[in-house]
Design brief:
The chain has about 290 residues and is mainly β. The protein has no helices and 20 strands. It has strands spanning about 15-20, 35-40, 45-50, 65-70, 75-80, 85, 100-105, 110-115, 120-125, 140-145, 150-155, 160-165, 180-185, 185-190, 195-200, 215-220, 225-230, 235-240, 265-270, 275-280.
Length: about 290
């Protein structure tokens, strides 16, 4: 669902896809076009949509185990823990050639982050609000990059955050028993082991009004909306619906791809000025995963 001006939703002919990721961008008058990437079970990658910076030039990728898409760029995780990157790198967000032993990737607007097999974090790109200040993070199970902030999930179920604190998106210090989280442009959402959803940050469009959601197994934070996947395969939404990005009432039986190793599930959908939203379900004891977004 969402705006298709740049053909970013033309995925109906894709087959044998095990994970998807959509380009992420904050809502602004100069944003709107984006791209979508898909990972096939054979380790090849598909892409559609805006390609102004070569972010869709992934046809030659092989042996990929996970993908992540950001504003004008795409990252791919190889089985050996190294990372591929195409697209815009003006702010250094594609400077990931030296990364090794990676198991998790995430793209924000202008920065890229990842988790290594030892639970430490790496970041590259714009750091003007200290969104890349993750060097001291340890024992991570998950990480997510937003517009100007980054959040991480520890194996102990606690959350950490760095970056712009003006909107409240980094106010996760008191979160406990979290099993999944995601960073939107100006808000952050998380899922607890009991299936409740937490949210903090900008709520201008009601994107943080998730307090009554129950039995949730995965969440996604877009620029100004939030999605939650129930255990019964239905989806709930909150926030901006200007481009029909929240019209998911008819969705049912949604079953997310699951890696053959440690468990992780996700679904990606998009909308106009903030096209990326990935339903993510992390389990803190498992760091390796397939199908990153």
């Amino acid at each position: 669902m969402g705006n298709t001006a740049a053909a970013e939703c033309r995925v109906e002919r894709w087959e044998d896809v095990v994970a998807v990721a959509a380009g992420n961008v904050h809502t602004a008058t100069n944003t709107g076009r984006s791209h979508t990437v898909g990972l096939r079970s054979d380790g090849t990658v598909l892409a559609t949509g805006w390609n102004g910076d070569g972010q869709c030039d992934v046809a030659g990728w092989r042996g990929v185990t996970a993908v992540a898409a950001g504003w004008r760029r795409t990252l791919g995780l190889l089985a050996n823990g190294r990372v591929l990157a195409v697209g815009r790198s003006s702010e250094g967000q594609c400077d990931v050639q030296s990364w090794r032993e990676m198991v998790v990737l995430s793209c924000g607007d202008w920065h890229s982050v990842g988790v290594r097999s030892d639970g430490s974090a790496l970041a590259a790109g714009n750091n003007r609000r200290r969104q890349c200040a993750v060097e001291g993070w340890r024992d991570l199970a998950a990480i997510s990059a937003g517009y100007l902030h980054t959040v991480g999930l520890g194996a102990d179920g606690r959350a950490v955050a760095t970056g712009d604190r003006a909107t409240g998106a980094c106010e996760v210090d008191e979160w406990e028993d979290v099993v999944a989280l995601d960073a939107g442009s100006h808000h952050t959402v998380g899922v607890t082991a009991s299936g409740r959803v937490l949210a903090t940050g900008d709520n201008s469009f009601g994107q943080c009004e998730v307090g009554d959601w129950r039995d949730i197994v995965a969440v996604a934070a877009g620029s100004t909306h939030t999605l939650g996947l129930r255990a019964n395969g239905t989806v709930v939404t909150a926030g901006n619906n200007a481009d029909r990005q929240c019209e998911v009432d008819a969705w049912s039986g949604v079953q997310l791809p699951q890696a053959s190793g440690p468990r992780r599930r996700e679904l990606t959908c998009r909308h106009s000025r903030a096209p990326e939203t990935s339903l993510r379900s992390f389990h803190p004891e498992n760091r390796s995963s397939r199908g990153l977004a």
